[in-house]
Amino acid sequence: MRRDNYKEVKKVLWVILFANLIVAFLKVIVGFFINSASIIADGFHSVSDASSNVVGLVGVRLASKPVDKKHPYGHYKFEIITGMFIGVMLLFMGIKIVFNAINRFINPVDLTITNESLIVLLITLIINIFVSTYEYKKGKKLNSYILISDSLHTRSDIFVSIGVIIALVCIKVGFPMIIDPVVSIGVSICIFHSAYEIFKSSIEVLVDSAVIDVDTIREILKNEEDIKDIHNVRSRGSENNIYLDMHVMVDPFITVDVAHDLTHRVENLLRENINKNTQVIIHIEPFYGK
Question: What are the transmembrane regions (predicted)?
Answer without folding.
Answer: 12-34, 76-98, 118-136, 157-175
